[in-house]
Write a structure and sequence with these properties.
Elements: H1 3-17, H2 36-39, H3 54-57, E1 67-78, E2 81-84, E3 90-92, E4 98-108, E5 114-129, E6 142-157, E7 162-180, E8 188-209, E9 212-219, E10 222-233, E11 241-250, E12 253-260, E13 266-275, E14 282-288, E15 291-296, E16 302-312, E17 317-326, E18 344-354, E19 358-374, E20 385-401
Antiparallel strand pairs: 1-4, 1-20, 2-3, 2-20, 4-5, 5-6, 6-7, 7-8, 8-9, 8-10, 9-12, 10-11, 11-14, 12-13, 13-16, 14-15, 16-17, 17-18, 18-19, 19-20
């Protein structure tokens, strides 16, 4: 089999197995929700990191595991985004359940300082489709972004208190964007493509005392260069389809957290999560039927403040509660309805059980913003108005240990 055919088949396999687009709403197009135990704790998990999803949250945490650990989960999200213009016109995104799977495997040999892991997950994603016709159809009608990461890691237990980890990330992404051209209801311009990028993530976990643990996680920035096609409908006098290209930047981010265990039954954690969205200035599409098309963003770096608590119960059961606040990354002057970013309050509640061979967990999460007012959009004044968000999500997972 030739190299090109191998890459093509792997691309098709990833697209078939991992469907990652999810509605935007906070922190750009990042997707920080990667495991129910963490989600239930408001994603305050970097210092705890005691299941295979640590490959995403803090790979240094996998040294706490023993033997083979295979974990699989699915994140179900039902979006709810609505819009009202200053003139009173209304619209909303189509509400369909989005599914985002997660796969993690860890091998931690007994009495050996190294542990090894492999994760397949989606750290970024976007899906939005507004009901038609909408007041800003010449700005945006629908968009989709899929970003799949394959992440092998190795963790080193330096001593009883300190662990370090690092691993490469192999990233595949597909993207598409569609908007209206003029005043018609059936004319569209659309562009789509896919591409690859490489990066890495790293982690540190330090537990100087049984009551206290500290964690750090870092993920390197990547840029995906997309190759694909653009087209317009109706096409005359424009070409029906032509080769086009685009580049999208995905920011670096760092998370720091502290876990406090006043007793063996309680675990309380606070994390601070920083994303370098200032690195993302815009998206330029080249070679389209309309020439070069630029989508200005001028994002700004933002923080997430995460808090969670877990209570252990008899027979291996546990219950968790959490909350985090995600700052808006998108300024009003370049706001785009496909990226309806805003300040967002997210709450989580979950429970589960840790057993000898099997672990399982279930978490519910909501995301809420009563209103984001956009009033000075200089790029697309049609998008001025109030945006309301209420998302519901459920994440389930199970771990088989052998």
């Amino acid at each position: 089999m030739s190299g090109k055919k191998s890459v093509g088949r792997l691309t098709a396999l990833l697209a078939a197995i991992v469907l990652c687009p999810v509605p935007a709403g906070a922190d750009g197009y990042r997707l920080p929700n990667q495991d129910p135990e963490a989600i239930a704790r408001g994603n305050a998990f970097v210092a705890t990191a005691d299941n295979p999803s640590a490959i995403y949250y803090n790979p240094a945490g996998i040294t706490q595991l023993e033997g083979h650990n295979l974990r699989a989960g699915v994140y179900f999200l039902l979006p709810g985004v609505s819009f009202q213009s200053p003139s009173g016109a209304t619209d909303r995104t189509r509400s369909e359940i989005n599914t985002v799977p997660q796969f993690y495997y860890v091998f931690a040999p007994q009495d050996f300082p190294l542990a090894f892991g492999l994760g397949v997950y989606c750290p970024y994603g976007l899906s939005a489709e507004w009901d038609q016709p909408n007041p800003f159809r010449t700005v945006a009608e629908k968009g989709s972004l899929t970003y799949v990461t394959i992440n092998p890691v190795v963790a080193w237990k330096v001593d009883k208190t300190l662990s370090l980890a690092i691993g490469p990330t192999i990233n595949y992404s597909q993207a598409s964007f569609e908007r209206g051209i003029g005043i018609l209801t059936n004319d569209q311009f659309n562009v789509s493509g896919d591409g690859w990028a490489a990066g890495f993530n790293a982690g540190l976990r330090w537990e100087p005392l049984p009551m206290w643990a500290f964690g750090l996680n870092y993920r390197f920035a990547t840029t995906v260069d997309y190759s694909g096609t653009s087209s317009s409908t109706p096409s005359p006098p424009l070409p029906a389809s032509r080769s086009s290209e685009a580049s999208i930047r995905f920011p670096q981010f760092a998370v720091a957290g502290i876990s406090f265990r006043p007793t063996e039954k309680w675990n309380i954690e606070f994390d601070l999560d920083w994303a370098d969205w200032g690195y993302v200035k815009g998206i330029t599409f080249t070679g389209t039927a309309f020439g070069n098309q630029t989508l200005p963003l001028d994002y700004r770096s933002s923080l997430m403040y995460e808090f969670g608590v877990t209570r252990k119960l008899p027979r291996g059961y546990f219950v968790s509660l959490g909350y985090f606040f995600s700052e808006n990354s998108s300024p009003s002057k370049n706001f785009n309805p496909i990226l309806e970013d805003s300040d967002l309050h997210l709450g989580g509640l979950g429970f589960g059980r840790k057993g000898k061979r099997w672990d399982w967990a279930v978490a519910y999460q909501f995301g809420y913003n009563p209103s984001r007012e956009v009033s000075n959009d200089q790029t697309s004044p049609q998008a001025n108005g109030a945006y309301h968000i209420f998302n519901n999500a459920l994440n389930v997972s199970a771990t088989f240990k052998f």
